[in-house]
């Protein structure tokens, strides 16, 4: 579970407290769980919050404590510290293709994400935008936010875009950079409404992320805005 790269960006206390209490929306909770998979410091913080919460629960009159509340908190903590799940290798149609080789790589995923994808990323319905970027929408049951897995090919980029709302991104594999910094596996990156950036994957490895947003993004480039209805088609790439 340890991450070779130092995790620099973390959820703030509000995210961790709401996650431990079980009150965070499922889409955002999935992102926090992905971060906890890679971050020992935040897992320790969650355990501390849980301990404090347990003590507070014990101080309350029994009639005021929900019967399943403590069980829900403990279940979230247990899920956060479970051993990593791995996606099984996918059979490639062309063993000589470098792209096919990349598809068969075993990717260590947080358990919650592995369960939602049935353990195999290539079974998802991917949509492409150009040659270097694809995404697959995942259903978290959160009607107010859209969650997706994003993959940027090594050296590729997501075209410059503007955020119409808040977005959380957690890197699951590889890394990407934008005008502000470089982000590695486990980083919990929050973008606010009005921000604009161009994520670019590192040259040596594809970048895989989980992301959730509460409003659509808007491509700055007119060409991409016009082509998006044609490019966003399912593919088994």
What are the main properties of this structure?
alpha+beta; disordered C terminus; Jelly Rolls; Arc Repressor Mutant, subunit A; 237 residues; 2 domains
Give a written overview of the molecule.
The chain is α+β, with helices and mostly antiparallel strands and 237 residues long. The chain folds into two domains: 13-85, Arc Repressor Mutant, subunit A; 86-107 and 116-235, Jelly Rolls (Sandwich). 31% of the residues lie in helices and 23% in strands. It is built from seven helices and 15 strands. It has helices at 13-21, 26-36, 40-59, 69-80, 98-103, 111-116, 222-231; strands at 85-86, 108-109, 126-129, 133-138, 146-152, 161-163, 167-173, 176-177, 182-183, 188-191, 196-197, 200-201, 207-213, 217-219, 234-235. The strands form four sheets. Strands 10-7-13-5-4-3-15 form a seven-stranded antiparallel β-sheet, covered by helices on one side. Strands 11-6-14 form a three-stranded antiparallel β-sheet. It has a three-stranded antiparallel β-sheet with strand order 9-8-12, with no helix packed on it. A hairpin with a 4-residue loop joins β8 and β9. α3 runs antiparallel to α4 (69-80). The protein is globular.
């Amino acid at each position: 579970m340890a991450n070779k790269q130092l995790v620099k960006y973390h959820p703030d206390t509000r995210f961790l407290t709401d996650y431990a209490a079980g009150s965070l929306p499922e889409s955002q909770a999935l992102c926090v769980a992905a971060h906890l998979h890679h971050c020992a410091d935040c897992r320790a913080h969650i355990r501390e919050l849980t301990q404090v919460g347990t003590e507070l629960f014990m101080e309350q009159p029994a009639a005021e404590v929900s019967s399943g509340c403590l069980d829900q908190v403990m279940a979230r903590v247990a899920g956060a510290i479970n051993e990593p799940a791995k996606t099984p290798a996918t059979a490639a149609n062309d063993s000589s293709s470098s792209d096919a080789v990349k598809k068969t790589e075993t990717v260590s995923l947080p358990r919650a994400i592995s369960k939602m994808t049935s353990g195999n990323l290539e079974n998802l319905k991917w949509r492409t935008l150009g040659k270097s970027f694809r995404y697959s929408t995942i259903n978290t049951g959160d009607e107010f936010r859209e969650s997706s897995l994003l993959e940027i090919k090594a050296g590729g980029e997501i075209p410059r875009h503007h955020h119409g709302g808040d977005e959380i991104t957690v890197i699951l594999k590889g890394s990407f950079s934008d005008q502000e910094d470089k982000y590695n596996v486990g980083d919990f990156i929050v973008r606010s409404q009005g921000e604009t950036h161009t994520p670019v994957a590192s040259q040596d490895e594809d970048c895989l992320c989980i992301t959730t947003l509460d409003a659509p993004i808007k491509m700055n480039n007119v060409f991409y805005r016009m082509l998006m209805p044609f490019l966003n088609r399912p593919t088994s790439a």
